[in-house]
Amino acid sequence: MTQFLNTILSKVFSINTAPLNQNSDINQTSDLKTKHFQNLHTSLKQLEFISCFEMHLDNKKEDSYKLSFLQELARIKYSAEVNTIQSIQYCKAV
Question: How many of the other CB atoms lie within 10 Å of CB of 84?
């Protein structure tokens, strides 16, 4: 008899929790979408800042900056560009 009750209870609990699981999946999906759109926004802001900074550097003499600084700036810019492209591709797929 307890085996039968456990089976019925387990089915009732699984039926009652199914909509909750679907809602939590929807919430998790929307949270992930929000997070990826925030990452895209952050990447675009980084590129905007780098662009403004490069325009500022263009107004100054490049000889006054160390080569290592300019190389590091180029690496940061490349990384921001790659992150932005990946974020755009992911957001389009979602």
Answer: 18
Residues 6+ apart with CB under 8 A from 73: 50, 53, 54
**Residue 75 pLDDT > 90, yes or no?**
yes
How far is it, in rounded angstroms, from Cα 23 to Cα 43?
30
- Tokens 């929790």 sit at which residue? 17
At 47, phi and psi to the nearest 5? -65, -40
The whole-angstrom distance between residue 48's C-alpha and the CA centroid of its chain comes to 18
Report which residue type is found at 56. Answer: H
Q: Which phi and psi angles does 66 have, rounded to 5°?
A: -70, 150
pLDDT in tens, 24-43: 556 766 777 788 889 889 99
Q: What are phi and psi of 61, to 5 degrees?
A: -80, 130
